[in-house]
Design goal:
210 residues, alpha+beta, 7 helices, 8 strands, disordered C terminus
């Protein structure tokens, strides 16, 4: 009975670990990345293809681009990953790349396109972090935002919005400070949750006590 009891005790941890791995499996796209890159030489203009939901909310998609640090024994999220942020067009704060989901593309394609246009990076898009409803600060309209993690594999030297945005790699802690949007911060916390599940339990507890 001791063996079965021990297995049942550790079973929830195994399930959480398995789910965190499944969440990070790259999503298969209907359009090859190479074709997508060649088609995004200039940012899309206008909203004639923009999608809206049945409430009239504009549908917005984006990514949190991230990369792994080379720390061997990480004990905090800042030692595990860095995230890529871009400057807002109005110059107020740094945020994650996002934009409108259009009718001629899947949600994942739109997220990758917006990330390529605004941040100039490519990589593996993973399972969606969630969705959030929020009100535009510039206009009195509501949006529904969907965010994905993007494990960056390539940084381009030239991209469509290079001349109007800056990009930089920051720690998760720095992104929390600089991002002005609550819904993006909540998406970041979901990404953190997924990665913290992969740390050994004793290291997580050790970090939580500091």
């Amino acid at each position: 009975m001791g063996g079965i009891s021990g297995f049942l005790t550790n079973f929830p941890h195994f399930i959480y670990f398995l789910l965190s791995l499944l969440e990070r499996i790259p999503v298969k796209l209907p359009m090859p990345i190479e074709k997508m890159v060649s088609s995004v030489s200039h940012p899309r203009i206008g909203r004639h293809l923009q999608r809206y939901d049945n409430r009239g909310f504009r549908l917005v998609v984006g990514c949190i681009p991230y990369r792994y640090n080379k720390t061997k024994e990480a004990t905090s999220i800042d030692e595990i990953i860095e995230v890529l942020v871009v400057s807002a067009q109005n110059g107020q704060g740094m945020l994650f790349p996002k934009g409108g989901w259009e009718k001629d593309e899947s949600m994942e394609e739109a997220a990758i396109r917006e990330t390529l246009e605004e941040a100039g990076v490519l990589g593996n898009i993973e399972c969606k972090l969630g969705k959030w409803s929020y009100k535009s600060k510039r206009q009195s309209i509501f949006h529904e935002g969907h965010m994905f993690p993007l494990l960056v594999k390539q940084e381009l030297d030239r991209w469509p919005e290079k001349n109007i945005r800056k990009r930089k790699w920051v720690t998760v802690s720095k992104a929390r400070e600089e991002c002005p949007h609550l819904w993006m911060k909540e998406a970041l916390e979901e990404l953190v949750r997924r990665h913290m599940q992969l740390l050994p339990e004793e290291e997580v507890n050790k970090t939580a006590c500091k």
